[in-house]
Amino acid sequence: MGRRKLIGDEELLAIAREVFVEKGIAARTRDIARRAGISEAAIYQRHATKSHLFFAAMVPRALTVENLLAAPTSDLSVLEQLEEVALGIIEYFREVVPVLLTLLAHPGFDRGTFAQRHPDSPFGQMHRGLVEYLEAHRERAGIVSENVVPSALALIAAVHSLVLFERLGAHGGRFDDATIRAMVRSLWTGLASGGG
After folding, report:
1. Any alpha helices (H) in 7-64, and if so which ranges?
2. pLDDT at 2 exceeding the cut of 50
3. What is the largest CA-CA distance in the chain?
4. By the 8 A CB rule, do 65 and 129 touch?
5. With 54 labelled, which of 113, 168, 192, 194 sits at a CA distance of 20 to 30 A?
6. HSE of 124, CA atoms in CB hemisphere, 13 A
7. Which pLDDT belongs to residue 194?
8. Comparing C-alpha atoms, which of 68, 73, 97 is closest to residue 85?
9. Phi-psi region of 167 (alpha: psi -120 to 50; beta: other; left: phi over 0)
10. Is the pLDDT of residue 72 over 60?
11. Whole-number average pLDDT of the chain
């Protein structure tokens, strides 16, 4: 008899996440075990039920907001920096939206319970960070809006929507950077004085 394969909890959850995203909530623990190179029993030693494994695996990857909002170079205008931020946000959403769609499809998903288990969501962090970023650059950017909170939310929602459109096959399944930059510029007219 060969040695049992050792696999860390995070690696098992990553494999389970892949399988659930590929096959949906109907994915079998047998498929997860086979891909992980372990027995189904080894999964159930760590997770009492398939549902427990599912909800443990389908937590969106954490987000380092500071890295996302770090200015690529100081010689860029605030608008150009915001374009770079939007490109970072869309890459993050491209990774997590498939996970979230699978999570939302589970009949046992309860937003309140999920939020209670994971109180500091990446999306809340992203919104707060973007608001702080816009407020910190208000004068330099010529932002005249008294309240940048809805503007930050609009940018995040717009980028998120692009990823959903990509999942539906729009633009061949992927918007190019120029389209995303143009979207940011069109949203920017609501923030900057004189539309500039």
Report:
1. 9-23, 29-36, 40-46, 50-57
2. no
3. 74
4. yes
5. 168
6. 5
7. 47
8. 68
9. alpha
10. no
11. 87
